[in-house]
Design goal:
single chain, six-stranded mixed sheet, 61% helix, Alpha-Beta Plaits, 23 helices, alpha+beta, three-stranded antiparallel sheet
Length: 645
């Protein structure tokens, strides 16, 4: 009975009533699609780390079957991983991931991208560094598409498998006896997973707020309708049941639409390069549990949010029908925010990532909690100092319904927090090291002269003009024509194997990870802010249109009383821009404050520029989104006849 009545009321709301339903559906669809992206990104980094784990071997305490070592090499300023493997005598080890058999001594298996590059470049720039190519690695061996990886078969007594190597994880891994290719997640992969978790929190909280607010779109229209049902005899249980049914039906349809949109967008999202390269599309497809959770949790969240706002309808339906102003909110909302922010100075870079993520989430949630209270205060001040009819109308509207006004600006305000937090932590330019054309080769103690002589012989055979110098444990080869990357790569190839297991590197090579990390932080910042701004602008546009529908009777009566349309439009803009200016600045300051314990120095100029851009984009987005609903305002003030809802 309740479900049938709910369906009839949902369909019988008229054209503008259905427009409100479509607005809710669109809001839920946007929230679901972006929520899937934010959550799935964590699983994508985990999958990448799992595929990368075999290169970080766990030493076998007994029954070793092979020896594995790894080192990084460079070509055209790109990093490639060279994994040397050797089967122990009398053992038959399982092949590494991505290979159908264990490499024999003198065989090399290259990733598709490395194989293509080896064919593209002259042999003396890359291919000559490897023995005979026996095949290509499968996707199981690669962290991301286009990764440069080589697996080279060796004898267990070969110098490359027995010589001393650096145990620095940035340089590679020393020879390790292994029982199989089950490894551990690398330190850099763990670091990226931590950053992904923090980025997800920065994206998920505004999405949950937006999703919950979706249930409150066109809330006045629904409250009036439900209040009328209560006055004619509907029980509180029936009102709650109808509200939940209506919200869940619309939200479930929106969740399905959002899921479809995300799946269609996954191949495009896979092109985002971070951590060295793009993604396998399969990494970004949502896990079945995540997918099921989105289709269940999002509608339940929307239904719960709708029920939370029903107290006035259930307890005082006559007050709703008479449009009485609800009681003011309590200052405890602000106190909760102050309490959470006061805890941040006690945090630091050594704090557990889980604690940091929870603290950030609480800060954003309490900002959302305190927002309506602050808006109501702003409304009182605006009404008290108003000198124009538009400002007076705007102030009174902010006092009358601060929750609705906050929903319009909440997206941009929370984005301001994200921008302030990331802007304060924005990394500066990474200072490079030694000259690009100065190749340095670490040598065993007591052998610098012999290694220098062999290096000099190799570069002369390659026809390169270079100066070879040596110190106690370092040989330096200064290539004369170092501006030409082809010449540098020829020198790298000529020096390959001069010291078994060691790679000749430039200062830039040694700092490759630092450059890559800074670039990835910037990419991650752009992604997080893009998602946040998309949520903010969608929220502003949808809630602005919903607000017009909610107040169409009030707008119509004001027009009939002689209020110019321009005054109504100015009042509508003022009730958005005034709280946005105050709350936007406040949330940016809160974001910077929360980031302060994790700052390693003064904010970089790029972070300040990013903040300025965020402020400009946020204001422009809200103004543009509000302008899109002006034709709807014209329509509801032109036709003020009673509607079927």
């Amino acid at each position: 009975m309740n479900l049938d009545l709910t369906w009839r009321l949902l369909k019988g709301g008229g054209r503008r009533g259905m427009l409100g339903t479509w607005l809710t559906l669109g809001a839920v669809a946007v929230s679901t699609a972006l929520l899937l992206f934010a959550v799935t990104a964590n699983f994508a980094f985990q999958s990448r780390g799992d595929r990368d784990a075999w290169r970080n071997p766990v030493a076998a305490k007994e029954k070793a079957t092979a020896v594995q070592a790894a080192r990084f090499d460079y070509v055209r300023d790109k990093r490639m991983l060279v994994v040397d493997v050797a089967a122990l005598p009398g053992r038959s080890p399982a092949p590494p991931p991505g290979l159908d058999r264990f490499p024999a001594p003198g065989e090399a298996w290259l990733s598709p991208a490395l194989a293509a590059l080896a064919k593209e470049l002259p042999r003396d720039q890359l291919a000559a560094r490897f023995p005979a190519v026996a095949g290509e690695l499968g996707e199981e061996a690669l962290a991301y598409p286009g990764e440069l990886v080589a697996v080279v078969g060796q004898r267990p007594d070969a110098p490359v498998m027995t010589a001393e190597r650096s145990d620095d994880w940035i340089a590679g891994r020393p020879p390790t006896p292994i029982a199989d290719f089950t490894g551990r997640v690398s330190e850099d992969a763990q670091g990226y997973q931590v950053l992904a978790l923090i980025a997800s929190v920065l994206m998920v909280v505004p999405l949950l707020v937006f999703g919950g607010a979706a249930a409150r779109l066109t809330v006045a229209r629904r409250d009036q309708r439900l209040a009328a049902l209560r006055l004619v005899g509907a029980t509180p249980g029936q009102v709650v049941a109808m509200t939940v049914a209506e919200a869940v039906i619309v939200a479930f349809a929106g969740a399905i639409a959002g899921t479809v949109a995300y799946v269609l967008a996954a191949p495009l999202l896979a092109r985002i390069e971070i951590g060295g390269g793009p993604w396998f599309t399969a990494d970004l497809f949502p896990h079945p549990l995540v997918l099921a959770g989105a289709l269940v949790v999002v509608p339940l969240l929307v239904g719960l949010s709708a029920v939370v706002g029903l107290r006035r309808v259930v307890v005082s339906p006559l007050g709703v029908a008479r449009r009485e102003t609800p009681p003011g909110m309590r200052v405890v909302r602000l106190l909760a925010l102050v309490a959470v922010l006061a805890a941040f100075p006690a945090l630091g870079a050594q704090t557990s990532v889980t604690v940091i993520a929870v603290a950030i989430a609480l800060a954003m949630l309490t900002l959302n909690l305190a927002g309506p209270w602050v808006v109501s205060v702003i409304g009182r001040i605006t009404a008290a100092v108003a000198r124009t009819p538009a400002r007076l109308l705007a102030g009174r509207r902010l006092v009358d319904d601060p929750r609705s006004a906050w929903r319009t600006v909440a997206g941009v305000a929370l984005t301001g927090f994200v921008a302030g937090f990331l802007g304060a932590l924005s990394p500066g330019a990474f200072e490079g090291g030694a000259s690009h054309g100065e190749l340095r080769l670490a040598v065993p103690e007591g052998r610098p002269e012999a290694v220098a002589a062999l290096a000099r012989e190799r570069v002369e055979q390659a026809g390169l003009a270079a100066t070879v110098e040596h110190e106690k444990r370092l040989v330096t080869v200064k290539v004369r024509d170092h501006a030409d990357p082809a010449v540098v790569d020829r020198a790298r190839t000529a020096l390959t194997g001069v010291v078994p297991g060691r790679t000749p590197t430039t200062g830039s090579d040694d700092e490759w990870f630092g450059f890559q990390l800074m670039a990835d932080v910037r990419v991650g910042t752009v992604v997080v802010l893009s998602v946040s701004f998309l949520v903010a602008i969608a929220s502003a546009g949808i809630t602005a249109a919903s607000s017009v529908l909610d107040r169409r009777q009030t707008y119509g009566l004001l027009r009939l009383a002689g209020t110019p349309l321009s005054v109504l439009d100015k009042a509508r803009r003022a009730e958005t821009l005034i709280p946005l200016t105050v709350m936007g600045g406040g949330t940016i300051a809160a974001g910077v404050f929360c980031a302060t314990p994790f700052m390693l120095g003064a904010p970089d100029v790029s972070g300040l520029v990013m903040l300025a851009v965020c402020v400009a984009v946020g204001f422009a987005g809200v103004i543009g989104a509000g302008a899109l609903s002006r034709p709807l305002l014209v329509a509801v003030t032109t036709d003020v006849s009673p509607r079927p809802d």
